[in-house]
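REQUEST ID: PR-0412
SUBMITTED BY: lab tech R.K.
PRIORITY: routine
TASK: structure prediction, single protein chain
INPUT:
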Amino acid sequence: MKEIMLPYILVCIILVKAGIVQWTLRNAVIMIGTGGFLAFMLFTAHRFWSPADLTDSTTVKAPHAVLSPLIGQEVEQVFVTHNQQVKKGDLIYTLKDVDTDAQIRGLEAQRAAAEAEILALHHQIKNDERQLDRLTRLDDFAQEQDRDDLRTRIDANFASIASANAQIQSIEAQISAALWQNERREIRAPFDGQISIANIAEGTRVGNMHLYNTNKKFVEMRIADQSYRGIKKGQFAEFYVDAYPGEIFRGRVHSVTTGTGEARVSVINGTQHVRQHVGNNMGSHGRTVIIEFEEPAGYNVPIGATGSGWISAEKPHPMLGFMDIIGGATVRLKAYKAYLSAL
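STATUS: complete
OUTPUT:
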């Protein structure tokens, strides 16, 4: 914020050097008092009506997916490298899963056995039906008990076939589940994104990989709690990052973080120590604001880049809209200073 005062200081120096204003005690008090008043007004504008991030903690972030596994299955082969851009469906790595393959082979063997049993039952039914037909033609020369036994055996075999078919359906459902599980051995990108560090290698049984969704980048910016009431969804915002010093990006307020880490309550039963409460909250925390933005063509704003930003907050009166000049000027001066930060 102090950089905003540089033009005023420069004007005062020129007035004194040019002899337009005499450097007397009275004039010095007026100049310094006016400067102090302007500085106070600038500070008020920053905190209430055009809040700017004076901590330079504005950060570019992106949602990410954690690609399994973390513990258990062995990584068979890795197909990506550090910081690689991937498309949806691209193969990231594969897993070894001997147990699933053996399970599928066992289930297929059970299905083949059930199908063979059904075939044998059909043959038995045909033979029994022919035998029943012969006994029926013999009429009084054959016992009724033999015919009843054949009918009972035919019905029992039909019931066995129905049971075997149900068993086959159950086996096929298990095979489908096993195949689905087997397909999960291939870890593919669920969306277009970027790998950060390829931190796993073939053979590891511990670890996983993160994939950042580069199509949903956002900016998280800190504001003072005093600005909370003036921040609304959709308000205009600007920010810069050190990766592109001197350049300004534009966005819109998505939402304000209402529940911060300081608001968490322990799930473990017990009373918090007073000194712990005071220690955690004696400083001025503020809160963060999520800013949505679209990357200009030809730019790739890196995830994790930091800088500063400002928001055109709600004003008590529309005539105070000129205060936005202060927030915009503050961020632009910080963007120019980013060149010096590399020294």
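NOTES: The radius of gyration is 38 Å.
REVIEWED BY: pending
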